[in-house]
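Consider today's protein:

***
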Amino acid sequence: MSDPNVSASSPSSAPAKGVAPPAATARTRLLLEGPILPTLLRLSAPNVLNLLAFVGMITFDGFFLGRISTDALAGASLAFPWVMLILQTTNSGMGVGVSSAVARALGAGRRDRANDLVLHALLLALAIAVVFSSVMLVGAPFLFRWMGGRDEMISDAIAYANVALGGAVFYCVLNLLGNTVRGTGNMNFPATVLVGCVLAHIALAPLLIFGLGPVPAFGPAGAAWGLVIPFGVGSMVMIVHLRSSRALVRLSFLGVAPRWELFADIFKVGVPGLINTAITNLSVAALTGIAGQLSPQTALGYAMGARLEYVLQPVAFGFGTAIVTMVGTNWGARQYRRAREIAWTGAATVALLCGTIGATVAIHPALWIGLFSDNEDVARVGALYLHIVGPAYLLFGLGLALFFVNQGLGRGVAAMSANAVRMAASAAAGLVALYGLGLGATGFFAAIAIGFCIYAALLVRTVVGVNIPDTVPATAA
């Protein structure tokens, strides 16, 4: 039996199995009829550029902040998970809910509905930004102390966070509107805008961190300004695009009244996705706090090793947005068997890529850790982390890909629950390893690897358990 809650449109509006809607564009027909792996790779290619840009941003900031001082690097590392929480919540969390809703609407031949979803995405972006900025700016000092921050480290963390978290509205608008475009199958434009933002960040950040001529040195806050300014420009570019005739879906401020039905269509995938992304980042924050109970060097070594997981997530996102769009469009068109084939093809591809990265850094950890710190204790702990956890990145990648599969099907709760179990299992097993068994950092890192294994197993079980029929009776929802 299929899950009745994953259909976004009524059966009467869905096309017959294997037939594209009469109003389908060439891009929609490609999603419904094109060969699976080549189409997946074609759609993912622009997102891979986006991935490379984000990898550059993650490594670039760490490299230059490390040149200021260990405290500056450690302080920014305390704030970094919370900045990534906003970026990922609106990109691969609530943002994928937007992509899924738009893709399913277009797959069912409902272009008017897809257009209306654009304004709803913008309203959500503004609301999410207000909540994030308000809560995080008030709570940041307390969170940073809990995560092990001390003295100068806290000052640097707050300097970075005040700017980066205060500018949340720009990340939210750019990412949610970008996902309306991705839902149409157009991966090129959002990727181009994001790559431009990251390249601008790379150009601005060192100037604002160290200063030059009349430009003062802002230190850690300079890295944050280098992020906020380009994303502000990028959000304006996205709005202009969606107001133009070039966009397949359009942003209109007149004649579109907010409707709970459309918010609900986004929320049923987006809210679990948002919570799932929050869990991922809270997991890093919580585990950093546990590692900090051993020593500041252990916390920083773990943070440097775990920073690689913020690279794996864009890898998954690069393919995941294509997976969501392809699965969602075919699900909206009631091509269930093809949706299943897309799901497993995409999952295997992402798992292979993440596994290759994990195996490489497990064998040669200095390739990654050496980018951030030359402190021997930090390097030793970071290398130990990658030796133990790196091989489990294969399963982490599999879980990440299946998360996007579930979102394309409109089943976000299952992915969220699996990630919650992973975080709880890693934290609980880590505490037992540290305080119950006295296994130190080795046992703590092994607990994290076990959590990744549990995550993949739960999501495999969830996707396998969805029995997608060849046809649906006319009375089904």
Notes: The chain has a mean pLDDT of 77.
